Amino acid sequence: MSAERKKKDYYEILGVSRNATQEEIKEAYRKLALKYHPDVNKSKEAEEKFKEITEAYAVLSDPEKRRQYDMYGEEGIYSQYTQEDIFRGVDFEDLFKDFGFDFSEIFRQFFGNFSGGYSLDIEQDIDVSLQDLYTGGKKQITVSRYESCKACNGTGVEKGSRWITCPVCKGSGQIRSYRRTPFGTMVTVTTCQRCMGAGRIPEKVCKVCNGTGRIFNTAKIEVNIPLDVQDGERLRLKGQGHYLNGQKGDLYLNVHLIPDLRFKKDGYDLYSELEVDYLDAILGATTKFLNIDGEEIKIEIPRLTQNGDTIRIKGKGFPKPYFGRGDLILKVKVRLPSKLSEEEKALLEKLREVNRQHLQN
């Protein structure tokens, strides 16, 4: 066991001495985290290294966890704390707020959610059509979630009442259980279920939310969908998840692009087909085309238009990020008649004869 503990030495992982100050530990972790962050380092080893240095920092930056580690090694940490407990209390967002990285998403993927064991995030699917993107990338969706109770402003306390210390955890927000092991007395820490980790409870609870500070509601949210969104992409709406104890989770939307039978998208251009009567293709004509948003567009068909030719209508494609739109590109499909009247046959025969004479001259 001692060899295994030496192999996973938190001080060695961060490159600091065993008597390093909190500031030295913090600075060492910041440098290593920025070096191995998955957005910066794409190597296969970077992800495991990032997890390793983060666990080391979570332990050594907490005086109580560090003391337990110094006394009993990593076995002492694993026997006393769950993975959630190891990372609880470390403000990674504040630690990296000046670097422009979204560390919350990375920690969510690697280590799970640390909001007292209760996930405040919501995940659901969203169907996106080409029409949604064409009309500006906005779509209204319905989300069922816990929201802050308006009657008590999310406190759970009846107006005029006050907060009192939780009688179960005595204000700590945690329940500790002790047990003896070969390494000494170990402590298991769990979230207090009475106060949900807050350490206090209302003397008189709000009658609307029964003291929870939140109510279940179905909300309508307008989503801004990126114009270059891909099928299977995951969109994050910060603060649109469940509410609990003054905190809001995030809403994650799994995008499903709905195929369109008439239209296709390539970049900011919109593609479709335009059926043209064979006589209009020969002689030229004016026709109308029903665009994806229901607009009727006037189309000028040039004389002697060939099957497979394209007609480009400027500014009728998808909106661009800052200004302007792409183009609507129509591929001509010349429509031939399935049957002819006697009069039409006679006229076409006469036209063929004229064409032959023209070619001979």
Care to describe what's here?
The protein has helices spanning 2-7, 10-14, 22-36, 44-60, 63-80, 83-87, 92-95, 103-111, 130-134, 278-283, 342-360, and strands at 122-128, 138-148, 163-165, 174-181, 184-191, 200-202, 214-224, 234-237, 243-244, 247-248, 251-257, 264-266, 269-277, 285-290, 296-301, 310-313, 328-335. With 361 residues, it is of the alpha+beta class. It has 3 domains: 1-114, DnaJ domain (Helix Hairpins, Orthogonal Bundle); 116-162 and 203-259, Urease metallochaperone UreE, N-terminal domain (HSP40/DNAj peptide-binding domain); 264-341, HSP40/DNAj peptide-binding domain. Strand 4 (174-181) and strand 5 (184-191) form a beta hairpin. The N and C termini lie far apart (102 Å). The relative contact order is 0.10.
Strand and helix layout:
Blueprint: H1 2-7, H2 10-14, H3 22-36, H4 44-60, H5 63-80, H6 83-87, H7 92-95, H8 103-111, E1 122-128, H9 130-134, E2 138-148, E3 163-165, E4 174-181, E5 184-191, E6 200-202, E7 214-224, E8 234-237, E9 243-244, E10 247-248, E11 251-257, E12 264-266, E13 269-277, H10 278-283, E14 285-290, E15 296-301, E16 310-313, E17 328-335, H11 342-360
Parallel strand pairs: 1-11, 13-17
Antiparallel strand pairs: 2-7, 3-6, 4-5, 8-11, 9-10, 12-13, 14-15, 16-17
Helix pairs in contact: 3-4
